[in-house]
Design a protein that fits this description.
There is one protein chain. By secondary structure, the protein is of the alpha/beta class. It is built from twelve helices and 17 strands. The strands form four sheets. A seven-stranded parallel β-sheet has the order 7-6-5-4-3-9-8. The chain has a five-stranded antiparallel β-sheet with strand order 10-11-17-13-14. β15 and β16 form a beta hairpin. The longest helix has 18 residues. The structure holds 2-acetamido-2-deoxy-beta-D-glucopyranose (4 copies).
Length: about 475
């Protein structure tokens, strides 16, 4: 079991550096690993950038990043017809890899865009279920971005740009299983009584990627066909927490075997697009996508498949209000571009956060998550000075001259303001026991603080 330790203090000149040096040794079992606190940076930054890029970015169509499997195994007709119509009969999935050309990949431009979007960490696909490594892995022969396709260390180049230009924490997505890896299929045939694939591929590559690139976030996935003992998950995580170069700051998730999801590990990611609509005490993550269908870029996705900024901000507000982080996915093209629809959503979100970030970053769930009377209102809170500030993120601008909310309980000192707007608002208690009626002033469109999802701030409430 882990013991709680005090921080060590180093005195350097006039500055005191608090380092969370600890002699905690986690044991390779969930009882021990589950006691590790989630490093605090994660709960403060709230928003992550999820980035899907791989050989699937070449067909870039039906079923997104799942194209290979849905073509070869499910034999879905969209994929089969697409291949029959456009490729020679002997064309294999591996033949797509040379077309992952990445000639427009500009990691500096990506880093600047992510910074403008206001995200605090990344989950860049290091390897998806297809097994293609986006870094030159010693354990991947001819199925990685240095040997074929880009001829470039995509992961390393992005990590370097992000670290050089931003404070964003670089992190990765990594799939444990590989659909068609012969070693994996052999272990599977043996009902996972052998671990050839884990011993010769997964574990070596995971130690390699952590030692070489020091990701501070690891979104594990592709776990669900076998349990944690097959994957050697607890041994790996114990190393990650005890001895790895990122042991003090790394955050991971719960997808480490068919018996760990939503039960063990770091942050609960549970199922994709987790968004429970109520408070969850354990830190959790909504891994979602701007393309409502798939994470891999799809050339033939219609506009209606993309979330609007209003929809994206509503999901952001709901997620943060309920104690979650949001991991927002964009899909990259085969030539390395972030297309304008994704760029627009990210810049819109960043512009919104420039005004309203106070209601998101470093906030904590309030006593209420949504309002009791008015729908589409999500609350967050933050200690400021000796008091608590409460934020109501509203999706719809009131149509009348007042806005009535049920959850806030006022005091005679309650102050109501709108983030990004200079004046405070007049208000009345809605009833003797609680609620508030806010008098909406006349605000010209040109003086509105933002175009979508406005945030009321309450100070000196009774709750
Ligand atoms: C795996 O399990 C199946 C079903 O229980 C069984 O039929 C098969 O013989 C097992 N294979 C091995 C290699 O143990
Ligand atoms: C997997 O875990 C077992 C049991 O703890 C250990 O003996 C083995 O060395 C581990 N293998 C790898 C590749 O980490
Ligand atoms: C979990 O994986 C193990 C193999 O490691 C397998 O025997 C078991 O059936 C799986 N359980 C579920 C619920 O899929
Ligand atoms: C608040 O959320 C709960 C749970 O999702 C829901 O049942 C309720 O209708 C919501 N309240 C309003 C006013 O929308």
């Amino acid at each position: 079991m882990a013991l709680k330790m005090h921080s060590a203090v180093q005195i350097v000149g006039a500055c005191m550096l608090w380092t969370s040096v600890s002699s905690i040794r986690y044991l390779p079992n969930w009882n021990s690993l589950d006691t590790r606190p989630i490093p605090s940076w994660y709960d403060d930054v709230k928003i992550g950038m999820y980035i899907h890029w791989g050989v699937f970015s070449v067909p870039s169509t039906y079923y997104g990043e799942w194209f290979w499997y849905e073509w070869q195994t499910s034999k879905y007709k969209e994929c089969v017809q697409f291949m029959n119509k456009n490729y020679k009969p002997d064309f294999t999935y591996a033949d797509f890899a040379p077309q992952l050309t990445a000639e427009f990949f500009d990691p500096n431009q990506w880093a600047d865009l992510f910074k403008a979007a206001g995200v605090g960490y990344t989950a860049f696909v290091a390897k998806h279920h297809e097994g293609f490594c986006n870094w030159p892995s010693k354990y991947s022969f001819n199925w990685n971005s240095m040997d074929v396709g880009p001829k470039r260390d995509l992961l390393g180049d992005l990590a370097a740009a992000i670290r050089a230009r931003t404070n964003i924490r670089f992190g990765i997505y990594h799939s444990l299983f590989e659909w068609y890896n012969p070693l994996y299929l052999e272990d599977k045939m043996n009902n996972y009584t052998t671990q050839k694939f884990v011993e010769s591929k997964v574990m070596p590559e995971m130690y390699e990627v952590v030692n070489k690139y020091k990701p501070e976030y690891i979104f594990s996935d592709g776990d669900w066909e076998a349990d944690d003992t097959y994957w050697n998950s607890t041994e790996f995580i114990a190393w990650l927490y005890n001895d790895s170069p990122v042991k003090d700051t790394v955050v991971t998730n719960d997808r480490w075997g068919n018996n760990s999801r939503c039960i063990h590990g770091g942050v609960y990611a549970c199922d994709d697009k987790m968004n429970p609509g109520h408070l969850i005490k354990r830190k959790w993550e909504n891994a979602m996508t701007i393309d409502k269908q798939w994470a891999g870029f799809r050339r033939n996705a219609p506009l209606s498949d993309y979330l609007t900024i209003e929809e994206l901000l509503a999901i952001l507000a709901e997620t943060v209000s309920c104690g979650g982080n949001i991991l927002i996915n964009i899909g990259i093209t085969h030539d390395g571009l972030i297309v304008p629809i994704f760029e627009e959503r990210l810049r819109q979100m960043g512009a919104w956060l420039d005004v309203n970030g106070e209601s998101i970053y470093a906030t904590r769930p309030w006593s209420n998550q949504n309002d009791t009377l008015t729908s589409g209102v999500w609350y967050t809170s933050k200690k400021q000075g000796s008091g608590l500030s409460v934020y109501a993120i509203i999706q719809n601008w009131p149509t009348g001259q007042t806005l009535t909310l049920g959850a806030p309980v006022t005091t005679s000192n309650t102050v109501v303001s709108l983030l990004g707007y200079p004046n405070t608002f007049r208000w009345l208690p809605a009833s003797p026991v609680g609620g508030i009626v806010i008098q909406m002033p006349y605000i010209p469109v040109s003086r509105m603080p933002c175009q979508w999802a406005w945030v009321f701030k309450f100070q000196n409430l009774a709750n």
